[in-house]
Design brief:
single chain; about 140 residues; mainly alpha
Length: about 140
């Protein structure tokens, strides 16, 4: 049996939004902790040194930044032609094992973004020409 929902799909649960000037609770919590920051940090370090694995993990997570994979440079020899031809060449390179499916996805996403930019640019030019001609 399907439950009736208070809000319809696409309808905000808070249409008026957050009131302007309201502060994030985290800001007020930080302000409360600030005078005790040094003592709290020293306590966390002491607990970590005494074997508290949760505190040890917290301390290490704050000292060592998370590992981020670095994508290797991908070079495709010939990406000339129109957007469709470029897309076909990228997919072909994946099929040939020259690039990974992940690289393919990233490259096609970039190509699609370029297509949208080109489309908007062309539309702006057309509108400009029409406005110069006095067509509305």
């Amino acid at each position: 049996m399907k439950k009736d929902t208070k809000f319809k799909p696409g309808q905000s649960g808070n249409p008026e939004g957050r009131p302007k000037g309201s502060k994030d609770r985290r800001t007020s919590y930080r302000a409360l902790l600030e005078p005790h920051a040094e003592d709290l940090i020293n306590k966390a370090v002491t607990m970590a040194k005494e074997g508290d694995t949760t505190m040890l993990r917290l301390c290490i997570d704050r000292i060592v930044s998370p590992y981020r994979a670095i994508d290797p440079l991908v070079i495709l020899d010939d990406l000339s032609g129109n957007l469709t031809e470029k897309g076909e060449k990228i997919i072909e390179a994946m099929g040939d094992g020259k690039i990974t499916p992940s690289d393919t996805s990233n490259m096609l996403t970039a190509l699609a973004s370029q297509a949208r930019i080109t489309e908007i640019d062309e539309l702006e030019k057309r509108i400009g020409r029409l406005e110069k001609q006095g067509v509305s």
